[in-house]
Amino acid sequence: MTYRILLVDDEVHICQLIQHLVNWEELGAELCGMAHDGVEAYEMIQSLHPHIVLSDIRMSGMDGIDLLEKIRNAGFDCAFILISGYRQFRYAQRAIQLGVIDYLVKPIKKKELNAAIRKSIQALQEQEESRELAPDGPHPGRKNMEVLIHALESSDPGPMSSADLARRYGVSLPGRQRMLYAKCITCDEAFSPEVLPLLFNHLEGRFQENGWFESGFCARWRTGYLLAVSDLRQPNLSAIQRQCQTAISIFPNWRVVLGACPLEETESFSAAANGARRAADRHYFSPSEVVFQEAAAPVRFEEVVSNRSLLSGAMQVLDGKSVGELIKEDLAALESHHSAEAVFAYAAWTIDAMNHALSAFTASRSGLKGLQYLHRNELLEQLYYCSSLRVLGTRLCGLLEEKIRTTREAIEQLENKPVRIIREMVSQRYMEHISLYDAAELVDLSPVYLSVLFKKETGVNFKDYVTNVRIDSAKELLRSGETINRVAERVGYQDVKYFSRLFTRVVGVPPAQYKKLYQ
């Protein structure tokens, strides 16, 4: 067996150093990925299911201790090695409480690093042996069930016949079974994630009340529950679905759909489980149905969608309207294939494409460095619960269009900031000599670029803007009774004749005549 290792450090060169220090072949390990902050690491752990995680403690977004705590709460039992540049016992103490395998201090030493990985592998092997020695029985332990569900998420879960299930996980499924997948969906385009635990608690309570599931196999998986029902009893799937729906009837706009796939003793459990899940996913394309017994044939979205280059281009110029229209066209093309995998692969691609477009803006504008990227896994999870492809499309378009809108606003505010600074400066120093070059130096922009930006924002060029501010102040002083000579001096003009001509040109009357109007 090859053990997959994920490296996590916000410094790329540290990840690369660790990669070179590990004796991969000798340890029987492989690098499955590198993450550079805790949020990215958690998403990769969910998708890659590494056996071992080597993580720095101090990182932006989510530090190593928070990452370890989050994956433990989520049920992941991968071995965890923490790395820190600080010898602080409080870190080590909390790490020990969370079950960390080892705690290394920078600078990292090759011998200590490989020893920590070897120790982690040994712990994983001992854990596997304890599972194999566990007695077979119809009701698998919670830990074994969690391990089985995590194995299903793997790209290569390995052999999973009935004998493998009993030996490795304590799951006994004799004879012919039917795998069922009960999935919760909603017609609401947006919903509070807080409702999900309540939904699943009601469903699980109903499963425990009835006698359908003699095997005792009932496990939360992705957006629903995976169940095994003896086919000898010929369960009425519509009746099961109705009971599930009754269990969640207190939640408006939510319903349960059911997918089914047969399982023989010699067949692959993982294939049957995924078949049941894919069958349930057909609800996206047949939203009026509630029971599905046939999974759609696989299809690649790249073979169906032809708008990808246009969509990428619209994202790069932050054209939200075009992005929404192109996504709806693409989903309409995918609809006839009834493949949820293709739809979600496409949705993942659009989110990645949007993040790629955002990266161009953050790279070219220092003020946008803090712009938040879209979290692909979190957004996809929201889409999983959509009741139909129409609702899913509306939700996906809404998420991307909202991101484009907020990004455009951030860019506009960033571009307008220099103008706001200069206008404030002019209001305070208009009586002094202020040139475009002085203003450009203040906001660290070139005079040419500032000139274009200033006129775009105010409608006038910089020189005329300063003149207008001075004349407005002069008008106020004249109305208060100040002499023309004094007014000219106070607004920044030493030549009274020049001031009078300029005032007359801007206001339409000489300053003396303007003053008489208010006496």
Task: Please describe what this structure looks like.
This protein folds into four domains: 3-132, Rossmann fold (3-Layer(aba) Sandwich), CATH 3.40.50; 155-292, Alpha-Beta Plaits; 301-412; 430-516, Homeodomain-like (Arc Repressor Mutant, subunit A, Orthogonal Bundle). Helix 3 runs parallel beside helix 4, helix 13 (320-335) packs antiparallel against helix 16 and helix 16 packs across helix 18. The protein has helices at residues 12-21, 24-27, 38-48, 64-73, 89-97, 110-132, 142-153, 162-169, 195-209, 237-247, 269-280, 308-316, 320-335, 340-364, 376-384, 389-429, 436-443, 447-458, 462-479, 484-490, 496-507, 511-516; strands spanning 3-8, 29-35, 52-56, 79-84, 102-105, 177-186, 218-221, 224-230, 254-263, 291-292. The strands form two sheets. It has a five-stranded parallel beta sheet, sandwiched between helices. It has a five-stranded mixed beta sheet with strand order 7-8-6-9-10, with helices on both faces. The longest helix is centred in the C-terminal third of the chain and has 41 residues, at 389-429. The model is unreliable at 133-139 (pLDDT under 50). By secondary structure, it is of the alpha/beta class.
